Amino acid sequence: MRRFFVIFCLLSMGALVWAQTAPPLGSAQSFAVLGASTVTNTGPTVITGDLGVSPGTSCTGFPAPCTGGPGVVNGTIYTGAGSLAGPAQSAAVVAYNDLLAEPCGTNLTGMVLGTSPGAVTLSPGVYCFPATSAQLTGTLTLEGNGVYVFQIGSTLTTASNSSVVLANGATAGDIFWQVGSSATLGTDTVFAGSILALTSDTVTTGTSVTGHVFALNGAVTLDDNAITAVASGGGGTGGGGGQQCKDFMTGGGFIAGPSGDKATFGFEAGCKCDKDQDKDKDRDKDQDGTLRGEVVYHDHGTDLRMTSTSVTAYLEKAPNSRRVQGTAEINGKKGTYQLDVSDNESAPATFAIRLSTGYSASGEIKGGHIEIHRCCSDNNDHDHGDQSCCDPDKDKKGNPKR
Q: Whole-prediction pTM value?
């Protein structure tokens, strides 16, 4: 009896560990985008990591060996089964099957990620939609150090402006989306994790992915995206990449509101490495990588006024754009807000706001400024801040030093 009990416990422990283990991506690890038939791109997509197609050889919208175009690949492009894309596809298939074999921990059938009670904030585990599709609307927060697996029987879709927010040690490298058919990420989604879709992936305009986008049998379609590969399989040890707060953004000015009248704004959000923080300990004692900020907005045409009460997310959409989310008072009532702001070097800065009341406004700023402030060694900010968010090889704008 005692021997049976010990064996049973060991088997149970093994199942528990397996359920929380990230599948190895092997030779697919370095690929940010991997398609089977084709990879097509429209717009100035930036891929950080390798791009591959196998067994197909066709890729458009990127430099040679693709057809050329506006896309940028900060990595290597591989095409055909005889290239490194071939074994990468084989490794992706193995990882897909490993994910499919994970025992389901929580069945979310009928729930909408980011919206339904019980599917807004999730801890590490295996979540499944066994014979149906999954949808993300709004903000899904993954909270805690560990592995997250989403098993989806058919399709994965995200609504426009939806977000995946990582908190309290969650990392993009330990999040996996096993999709039984195809995945479609809606416009301006900020997404985290590795998508392994049995058929195809469509990443629509303005969407960013921190992780991997793999299509095992079909095409990957891109349009003005930012896709950044991260290390996977860290098991929640912090080595898998994530949404670390590593800079801050300030802005002030006005845009044309929906009625055509002036709409003014001001904001500061992110994580500051402030060389003067010791001079004002009450204000700056937490500026060592801690998320903070404030936002104000006033539409003079409708007299709508919004003042933030918290910043709950600060997400990198692209090298020069950020998303800020949080709670607010909107004309004296509690609500939520979402900003998408850009600091464009060669074009006007842009500002967009969406409120829980249904109000939205966006456009190029007509006056004022928006600027990303990166922690750099040449301004000594890192001496009093979080050195992990400082890059000594870049200047204040994030450009390489000469």
A: 0.84
